[in-house]
Fold each of these.
Amino acid sequence: MSGFEGFVQALDYPVHVVTAACSGERAGCLVGFAGQTSIDPPRFTVWLSKANRTYAVAARSAVLAVHTLPHDALALARLFGALTEDEGVDKFARTPWTPGPEGVPLLGGAAAWLVGRVLDRADWGDHVGFLLDPLDARQARPGPVLMYRQVRDLDAGHPA
């Protein structure tokens, strides 16, 4: 194991589900790379793997939704992290959701969510960063959130 691999393996952070919608098409995936990037103005960035179908939909979307999952939502994380729409799986038929701004899916099982207008996209290797300007946010279920260590062993629907 390289020094870098050892360093990142020691980290633990919240995981999120990002959803996107464009031209009647919906997509969503589990992401481990996300965070606040500015206080004033408020900004949040999520990074999506180029190998993921959600990236293709997000690349055409005006807004994205970022969902923080409650600590006990492993089944929801597995749905959006281990299954892929590329194999005909309709993730949104398997979980409650409602349409948000511009039709972006808002997941019913989320602890909190943020909808942001996409301001910029930056290619940083195998992932693309989406800079979001928050339009709306809600905390539905206060308490501990799902962390990377809890999903570390999921078989991803796509490689990074």
Note: Residues 74-82 form the longest helix (9 residues).
Amino acid sequence: MFVLIRAVTYAALFIGLVLVFVPARVLSAAGIARPEAVGLLQVGGMMIGATGAVVALGCVLAFVLVGRGTPAPFDPPRRLVIRGPYRHVRNPMYIGAGLALAGAALYYQSLELLGYAVVFLVVVHLFVVFYEEPTLKRSFGADYTAYCRTVRRWWPKR
């Protein structure tokens, strides 16, 4: 139960900072306000954002239930998580966050927010390649190497 509380706390802090606070600052700096009417673009944005949220939530639950850890790099899973969303791609949590940002950009029709989403994904990619993957390889060895051979980093196999 304590691992679930830690995971929810860390996820809330990440979401609050990266997916709420910074995007709100980007929108404010660009002078973009909430749309007065909800149209097709806003509905599409909400659907994309909700999809990203569901994917990310599934990842947090997989980390807690399967990995017995959290998404935070300083409190990682004790076991390699290759079930749930992780059976399709190696980084579904970041994909979920990217979808949430892209959905918000569509909702607000904001190129500035779309730019932030692109920067977020580039930074995440560099973090994955230069920190996360080497750390996982050291932690889980041959199991992680085998997983990498069968599951792609960002795009599912057909």
Note: The helical segments are 2-30, 40-65, 92-108, 111-150.
Amino acid sequence: MTTPAATSAGANGAATWRSQAGSILFAGLGAFVALALVGLLAQETSAPWILGSFGATCVLLFGFPASPFSQPRNIIGGHVLTSLTGLLCLHLFGPGYLPMAIAAACALMLMMLTRTVHPPAGSNPVIIFAAQPGWSFLVLPTMIGAVSLVVIGWLYWAVLRRGAWPRR
């Protein structure tokens, strides 16, 4: 996607810029809606629905919805797989920078092996080693949060783009 500044001048350039500006606004609105809803759920339930990597997930989900990395299988599978890997390494090897690096490397390889690569999820093992949560972290915020973002994304794109996501 080119930036509005990179488009050509003239009437056609102005139309292109308006189109891109609209896409940028829709992407920002989508990220806002998704993170606000998940944040509201966290506030109302006093449960940790938010994961740091979810902000980057929204960049892909709403800014680049056609990307292979933005598809439901990748979002949910990538987040769950990397959090599981991080938790396993934390509990098997204990805290530390080497076990964290092992967890992140294994998570990357497993996402590639299972074709569930979702770049934002690559930070989940690092988050896990920083926070040192229990096993429940795999369910909430990881799985329930990722599924929530996918559902919100599906509803958002169904309303705005009439079924333009997920990519078929």
Note: The mean pLDDT is 91.
